[in-house]
Amino acid sequence: MYLHGILVVLCSAINKLLKWPVSLGLVFQLLTISVLIFFFLAIATPSSMAAREEEDEHGFVRRIDHNKLMGLKKKEKLSHFRFFWHDIVNGSNPTAVQVVPLASNTSATFFGLIRLIDNPLTLGPKMRSSKMVGRAQGFYALASQQDLGLLMVMNFASSEAKYNGSTSTVLGWNSVYAPVREMPVIRGSGLFGFARGSVKTKTHKLYIQNGDATVEYNVYVMHYWVFLLLFVTTIMDYFGKMVIISFLVKSCL
């Protein structure tokens, strides 16, 4: 209200003093408002950046409000994804390729072997006839001398609908012969930003003769709609500034 009054008085006084025509007076008023807004933004932006830099220099780490930083104004949501993971180590087009050989040819648990994977993820257990919804990309290492156990590090890269381009990251221990195994979801990207959760797996089919496997995955992920919220926040901020500028212009007309 104070700013509104000051602008009205300032514009009226200048028009009366210079005795300009109405049309020229309106142009002058618009130019005055534009210059004031420009200088306000020019002064405010560097000062806010300097304030942030000054905060960063206070120490190695500082506490921040992640809700304000990332626009996380809604509660987390829990999503359940079910698919089948196909590990193909043989044939003309394997999806799991050995990059580190066995530590010893006498190891019954293949200890030391490491494979890079780009495994297809499908809705059903039959890879050829089921719809593919993404890929599991990463590696697994045979990391036990006592039983067949895998250290698994992989990203689930989704290709399905709105989740296309989003990933969730799994890092954990997988005991192959256990009926049900559980591994943690440690992070994500895209729609799975700040994700955390749990993966439960069970073997659907294991081909002992060649090492191929089909595994059922049930992934439970707690996550925010980070990109959507950032988009909405940006749009609201933009239109808020436009409303303020429109109000200032109208105050001098």
Automatic annotation (TrEMBL):
Record carries keyword Transmembrane: yes
CC annotations in GO: apoplast
Subcellular location: Secreted, Extracellular space, Apoplast
Membrane spanning stretches: 20-43, 224-249
Signal peptide interval: none
Keyword terms, alphabetized: Apoplast, Membrane, Secreted, Transmembrane, Transmembrane helix
Pfam families: Dirigent
Keyword Transmembrane part of the UniProt annotation: yes
Origin superkingdom: Eukaryota
A Gene Ontology biological process term: phenylpropanoid biosynthetic process
Entry-linked PANTHER family: NUCLEOPORIN-RELATED
Main function: Dirigent proteins impart stereoselectivity on the phenoxy radical-coupling reaction, yielding optically active lignans from two molecules of coniferyl alcohol in the biosynthesis of lignans, flavonolignans, and alkaloids and thus plays a central role in plant secondary metabolism.
Protein family per UniProt: Belongs to the plant dirigent protein family.
Record note on quaternary structure: Homodimer.
Official protein name in the record: Dirigent protein
Lineage: Eukaryota, Viridiplantae, Streptophyta, Embryophyta, Tracheophyta
